[in-house]
Amino acid sequence: MGCTTSIEANDGEYHEMMQNSQVEKILKASKQQKKNQVKLLLLGAGESGKSTVLKQLRLLHKGGFTEQERIQYKNITWADTIGSMQTLIIQARKLGIKLDCDKPSSYLYSDKQKILGYKPLEGVNTSAAGGAAFLKDFVLKYSESSAHTRKFKSTGKANAGWNEEMDGVDGELFDGSSNATSNTGESRGTADEDLDSDSLLKDYLQEVNGSVHKNKSHKKHYTKLEIAEAIGKLWQGDEGIKKCFSKSNLFQIEGSAPYFFPKAGDYASSEYTCTDEDILKGRIKTTGITETNFNIDGIKFKILDAGGQRSERKKWMHCFQDITCTCFVLAVSEYDQVLFEDERVNRMHEAIMLFESLCNSRWFANTPFILFLNKVDLLKDKVRRSPLRKYFPDYDGKSNDVEDVLQYFEKLFLSLNHTNKPIYVHRTCATDSKSMQFVLTAVTDMLINQNLKSSGIF
Ligand SMILES: Nc1nc2c(ncn2[C@@H]2O[C@H](COP(=O)(O)OP(=O)(O)OP(=O)(O)O)[C@@H](O)[C@H]2O)c(=O)[nH]1
Ligand SMILES: [Mg+2]
Fold first, then answer.
1. Which fold is adopted by the domain 67-157+189-281?
2. Separation of CA 309 and ligand 2 centre (Å)
3. 331 C-beta closer than 6 A to ligand 1
4. Which of 117, 164, 214, 390 has the highest local Cβ count within 10 Å?
5. pLDDT tens-digit series, residues 404-429
6. Rounded to an integer, what distance in angstroms lies between the CA atom of residue 435 and that of residue 417?
């Protein structure tokens, strides 16, 4: 008995020793692995361009997009093209902008009728577009009830949307499988979780039908190509539509709509395959956090792309551990726009709150930051028609000078850093592959050097 006990005790110790040495080995291996790994976190408010930056990295280092993605974007962009043109027609009425196509004598009148009478979802392969997630996003974007709810629920206050005390949410946000792009997060949190997609969808279709003139002609069924042609004509021929777009800071619309409209015929054609540019300009809101793995110059890069809308930010803390570098993407052109999820809050005010809270958070006390002043192309256009001083009264640069405006925002954001960590600033147009190639190569080179230094190789 004693003997048995003694043998058992020795056995136990032996197993414990073996286990300890195995644990040590695993820890050592994981430490080594971490040394050879760069973990880059993309953060920023909704629509700032984080996923577009990731798309550029995929084009550079992962061979681009799959056939399935090209089909998905074609379906989504077709729906967005129609949704955006219907939005412009409806918003023009609200803003009192005269449209040529509203005059029954106009050659564009019947085109407008066709567009308003068309149900965007009819011509979409919804499962290829993303199924339930696509439908939910679509009604959130285009139904009036959703817009009312978002306005009604407005806090009127800029908000970082996450905080140090937050415990995060339950469940896994992404499966960590290597070399996979995964996105299993569910959107939850603010106004959108209170909206029932089915009833919104019904409301939305009623709204669209309700806007149609009581003329029986709208009952006629039009082909996708006929609708595409009507969209092209309205965009090209109706000055009121363009004028309405120039005031699109007052409502929500896809920023890439001017790119989509002349290409509507492509998205309508069964033969067309989406180009890389179509995908870069297209938009699918990120829910949860996606993880994409790259191998760049022998170093493993793990890029985490987080959904930036308020409801998504509650999940951010799940991935704040062991970050090599945080890249904050700021849509610098959006200083005169309000948030999608809270229509009384200025997008730039929100980004300022967000950046300040992240930059000075204990999570990132020693984590270098990269700041992308993104959407510079749109800013160039914006400063000419929308004076920055109206939104930022302390701006004392020249009223339509892009360089002055960029310097102002750069200085403002750098002043929010109350730590000693460096912040590297780049001016970007995330949809432009050529310029992004330079920026992203500079960023990955810097991160590789930093990784080598911290692992003691240099
Ligand atoms: N013109 C222009 N459009 C841009 C630029 N960067 C991004 N976009 C467009 O802006 C839209 C939103 O970009 P996303 O990359 O989806 O934004 P995001 O930050 O990932 O948004 P969330 O997933 O909601 O957090 C897309 O239609 C992009 O094509 C830019 O520099 N210039
Ligand atoms: Mg995204």
1. GI Alpha 1, domain 2-like (1.10.400)
2. 9
3. no
4. 117
5. 999 999 999 999 999 999 999 999 99
6. 27
Cβ atoms of 13 and 274 within 8 Å: the answer is no
308 lines ligand 1 (CB under 6 A): yes
Residues 6 or more apart in contact with residue 139 via CB below 8 angstroms:
146, 195, 197, 200, 201, 203, 204
Site to substitute for ligand 1 among 52, 304, 375, 436, most atoms within 8 A of C-beta: 52
The length of the chain in residues reads 458
451 lines ligand 1 (CB under 6 A): no
Q: Complex ipTM, two decimals?
A: 1.00
Give the model confidence (pLDDT) of 206-255 as tens digits.
665 565 444 444 467 899 999 999 999 999 999 999 999 999 999 999 99
Band (pLDDT 50/70/90 cuts) for residue 181 is: very low
Which pairs with CB-CB distance under 8 Å and at least 24 residues apart come from 205-210? Answer: 205/119, 205/121, 207/143, 207/144, 207/145, 208/86, 208/116, 208/117, 208/118, 208/119, 209/117
- Pocket lining: 286 vs ligand 1, CB cutoff 6 Å: yes
Count Cβ atoms within 10 A of the Cβ of residue 140 and give its class: 0-12 exposed, 13-18 middle, 19 or more buried.
buried
